[in-house]
Amino acid sequence: MKLDIINLLRCPSCDEADPEGKYELVGDYNQEKIFDGHITCRNGHSWQVRDEILRFHKESHPEVLYDKLEIDENRVNMLPDGLDEQYKRRFREGMLKFVEGLDEDIYAVTGLVVPFVKALGATDKLFLLFSENEDELRLAQEVVAKNRVYDNFFFVRHKGFALSPLTNITRISLFGEDEADTKLALAEEGNGDILASFGNLKMVRYSLKQ
Questions:
Q1: Residues 84 and 43 in one domain
Q2: Per residue in 46-73, pLDDT tens?
Q3: Which of 32, 69, 97, 179 is the most buried (most CB within 10 A)?
């Protein structure tokens, strides 16, 4: 996790982010990145970084480093609720159409991050991936590593976005309930761009950013 990216995030416990980079670091880090360890905000809330995943889902004592667990791919959602395996190809096509339309330099993403990074492939953009499912984040890490774009992705274990209000990063919600600037959703009909169809359901892109 790059240190300049950490300064784009707010502490989940005090809803504050320090734009001057006052997070205290302990563990394995250098001038650019922290690999394993903890970050502590100026109000004393401490959060673990393990294998470059920032674990914002619960506070952690700086002297405790949790074990790395094996990935359980069965706990990772590859399709949104409401779709089954017969629609996989059409879903991939819709997701690919979505990522081809991304034209900004940096994005924050929640929801189904694994099929997103699989569709994305090579990229020169930056992405902050948020998920409360650590298996999902670590599987996404494997995908972007195979695509040789690992340095373009940052992983935060947290439900929803944890962005500083000082940032203007575009937020993407992939089939989730998070408030976002751009959303993908399944709907029988909608006012957005239709990217794919699955029987009575459609993959719809809603752009809400003003």
A1: no
A2: 999 988 999 998 888 765 555 555 777 7
A3: 97
